[in-house]
Structure formats: structure tokens, C-alpha cells
Design brief:
Blueprint lengths: L6 E5 L1 H10 L2 E6 L2 E5 L11 E8 L3 H5 L12 E4 L7 E6 L5 E4 L6 E9 L8 E6 L10 E4 L5 E6 L4 E2 L8 E6 L3 E5 L18 E7 L1
Parallel strand pairs: 8-15
Antiparallel strand pairs: 1-4, 2-3, 3-7, 4-6, 5-6, 8-11, 8-12, 9-13, 10-11, 13-14
């Protein structure tokens, strides 16, 4: 699952009634992982198509996940849902044996962009963006004109980064003026909701004011 966005699956009304009648146990085992335990008589010939409704618990889910539907085990299908508050529907025929299945949903990937408003600093200041453990890298900040005519520094990650609700990265803003100074020890991560004003759909932006 992308980041820590909560996601649950619940039986629809018909499936829930069938589970109760036949003594079927359904459990959310872990994020994106569910278990169905059937306690039916072996002689039972009843076959029932169950449907689970996949419900994100936060709107952030829609910003960080890929539009590609996940592929599950043979005999289990997933499709988008038109029901309010429901992202997808999982369907399968109820087996006699216990079954445990998981659904991995890919995260979208975007470039990170930082727009730095320099305050009193001018073009001759040398800025840099650094991730403390060198897990991601950024282009040297470029001095350029902003949309309102002012001047800003702009920097972008060298590779696309998988979107999450929370990140473990620690990006620093440093200034090199004879010696290295840390201007900001931990910059905010760009929000998946904040698309670049340059119109690049593959880029999200954070704004820094010095």
C-alpha cells in the first residue's frame, strides 16, 4: 500500500448475510490483506459469489495511488466502483478451503519540485538541496523569474519519487558561501495535491520562504 493511507474491505449486504448464515469468518489481517475462513459442511453444494467493497479511509488515497488496477490471484477480480466512498470491488466465488489474499496497489510517481523565495538573498548565493542519507537527489537550484515577475530559485528531484502520505526522507536546504550553512534542516515534502504551476503533470511542488 502506498505510504500509510488506511484502506479497509467490507462485505456488501448480500455477502454479509451469506457469511452469517454459513459461519464464514472474514478478517482484515493487515493493510491490503484479508482472510476468508469457511466453516461449511463438506457436503454443501452451495456456491456463492462474494463481493467486498474496498474503502479508503482518507481522501489522500486518491492522490497517491496509481490508476492501474491491481492483479489478484486467479479467480479473484477487482474493478472500480461507482458507489459513494468505495474505491473498488473485489469479487470471487466462495471456496470450501480457507483462502488468504492480498492486494498491492502501486503508488504514482512524481518529480519533487521546490520553489524557493530568497528574501534578501540574490543570485550570487549558492544554494543546494540535500537528503541527509542520500536516498534522493536534486538538481542545483536555478535562479529564474517567477510568475509575478519576482525572482526565485527552482530545484527538482533527479528521478520520480513514489507518492506516499508520509515520507521518511529528510531534505535540507544549504547555502555555500565560503563555508556550508544549513538554512533549513527539514523541508516539507511536496503534497500530492500541489501540482507544479509550470503545468507539468508529473511534478508536485513545495514552496519555501527564506
Amino acid at each position: 500500500m502506498p505510504g500509510t493511507v488506511p484502506l479497509v474491505a467490507e462485505p456488501d449486504r448480500e455477502t454479509e448475510l451469506f457469511f452469517r448464515r454459513c459461519g464464514v469468518l472474514f478478517r482484515n489481517m493487515a493493510p491490503g490483506c484479508w482472510s476468508i475462513l469457511c466453516r461449511m459442511e463438506e457436503s454443501s453444494q452451495e456456491v456463492f459469489s462474494i463481493r467486498l467493497l474496498v474503502k479508503p479511509q482518507e481522501d489522500m488515497f486518491y492522490y497517491v495511488t496509481s490508476r492501474r488496477l491491481p492483479v489478484l490471484s486467479s479467480g479473484i477480480t477487482v474493478r472500480y466502483s461507482s458507489l459513494p466512498g468505495v474505491w473498488g470491488e473485489i469479487e470471487t466465488e466462495l471456496p470450501v478451503d480457507p483462502v488468504r489474499f492480498s492486494m498491492g496497489i502501486d503508488a504514482e510517481r512524481r518529480y519533487w519540485e521546490y520553489i524557493i523565495f530568497p528574501g534578501e538573498r540574490k543570485q550570487n548565493f549558492v544554494l543546494a538541496l540535500e537528503e541527509r542519507e542520500s536516498r534522493i537527489f536534486f538538481t542545483p537550484p536555478v535562479w529564474e523569474e517567477w510568475i509575478d515577475g519576482s525572482r526565485i530559485y527552482r530545484s527538482r528531484s533527479t528521478e520520480k519519487i513514489g507518492l506516499k502520505q508520509y515520507y521518511e526522507y529528510r531534505v535540507q536546504l544549504t547555502e555555500n558561501a565560503g563555508r556550508r550553512w544549513i538554512l533549513r534542516d527539514k523541508l516539507p515534502s511536496p503534497s500530492p495535491r500541489e501540482l507544479s504551476v509550470t503545468g507539468a503533470s508529473d511534478t508536485i511542488t513545495a514552496y519555501i520562504y527564506l
